[in-house]
Amino acid sequence: MQRRDFVKATAAGLAAAAVPASLAGAASSSASPAPARAPEVLVRRLTKPVLVSDVSSIRFKNGGPESAIERAFRGIVSGEDMLDAMVAGVNIPELDPEETGIGYGGLPNADGVVELDSCCMHGPRKWAGGVAGITGVRTPSVVAKAVAERTDHHLIVGAGAREFARALGITVEDDLNTPRSRALWLEWRRRVDPTHWLDPEERLRGINRGRGETDPDRIRRDRAELAERMEAFERASLAAGLSMVGDGLIPEHSFWGTTSLEAVSPAGDICGVTTTSGLAFKIPGRAGDSPILGAGQYVDNGVGACGSTGRGEANLYNLTSFLIVENMRRGMAPKDAGLEALRRIQANTIEARLRNERGLPNFDIRFFILNKKGEYAGVAMYGQGESTFAVCDENGAREEPLVGLLEGSPRG
């Protein structure tokens, strides 16, 4: 959809929504005599509809004409149920094999298995649902919505989530990897364990980098404690993944792997949906913040909504999305509410392994925030690397700068 047509269609829809049917009928009848004194008409002021999200919701279209945020906005202003429109929107990047942060072709866990999480909240109906660690389903947001609509629960996980989807007739596949996601996983394995996973190009050229000890028994003897080995593997795993981001093999937004879409409708109702493949190459079974109410996403129909991408464990510890909505309940503007929550994360980041040379958090985290008035903001711990967020309103879809709390880079 071209921007000019998008704006025209949106303006027409908003104008129609703002005029009561009785007034529209009266205006179209030229035969009715005009009253001596025009009656006073009270018209309810409508909220400016607006959606905010991470950049995946605007940059990926899966070969079609619309991005996730455009599809969701179009559905909302044309009268679809808000959550229906938003799930239909995020299905676009979920199904796009070029988006390696969510859905089909999302970067897998350490065992090469694509595990997906999703959460949704329907503000006016007070419904919420989520899935964590689901495999074989390209659109986990559809399953999360079904949890909200069809069960008395908020979260179904693992094999249970997969079988729940199968019972609903949703297609379940053996493997959600694409050739690209599998190739990236194999490269990650090589970087984590170069003594056993060799670089095929280097072998063909006869290059020997002297990779060190390769005797498994000697390696085991040199690592006396299981905890030490696990810690070393975790450091190597993260370092390998971040090196792939630094080398341009993985976009930063895909490494942390989430799209989170929040919306306020013309009637002032609020909904949100988040979907993710989680941290790239994570420990199998790891669930981050995205499927957890109040952590990666929170909606209160009387106040506003917040969604997030970045280091999920920081959100889990601080329940930051809930905190941001509560900050707005106390009267803070979206930007101020988000920056205050980032300060809370910074204050609670005390472990040396999570701090850089400046003593600041060595990770980034982003929040996409709106309130019931249609005011919005995008904030981040640093706002570098991934420095913009997506917005869509009657002026069309666009990217705007994130407001960073801290200067510089999280890694230095």
Structure description:
It is a single chain. The chain has 412 residues and is of the alpha+beta class. It has two domains: 50-177 and 252-404, (Glycosyl)asparaginase (Glutamine Phosphoribosylpyrophosphate, subunit 1, domain 1, 4-Layer Sandwich), CATH 3.60.20.30; 179-203 and 214-246, no CATH class. Helix content is 38%, strand content 18%. The chain is built from 15 helices and 13 strands. The protein has helices at residues 3-18, 21-28, 56-59, 68-77, 82-95, 140-150, 158-167, 179-192, 200-204, 216-222, 226-246, 252-256, 312-318, 320-329, 334-348; strands at 50-53, 116-122, 127-134, 155-157, 258-264, 270-276, 297-300, 304-310, 365-371, 376-380, 388-393, 396-401, 403-404. Strands 4-3-2-6-5-1-11-12 form an eight-stranded mixed beta sheet. A five-stranded mixed beta sheet has the order 7-8-9-10-13, with helices on one face. Helix 8 packs across helix 11 (226-246). It is globular. The model is unreliable at 1-45 (pLDDT under 50).
What's the overall average pLDDT, rounded? 85
Globally, the shape reads globular
Largest sheet: 8 strands, mixed
What is the CATH level 1 assignment of the largest domain? Alpha Beta
The helix-strand sequence is HHEHHHEEHEHHHHHHEEEEHHHEEEEE
Q: How helical, in percent, are the residues?
A: 25-40%
The fourth-level CATH homologous superfamily of the largest domain is: (Glycosyl)asparaginase
Low-confidence stretches: 1-45
Q: Helix- and strand-based class? A: alpha+beta
Quantity of strands, as a count: 13
Query: How big a fraction of the residues is strand?
Result: 15-25%
User: How many helices in DSSP terms?
Assistant: 15
The CATH architecture name of the largest domain reads: 4-Layer Sandwich
Rg value: 24 Å
CATH topology of the largest domain: Glutamine Phosphoribosylpyrophosphate, subunit 1, domain 1
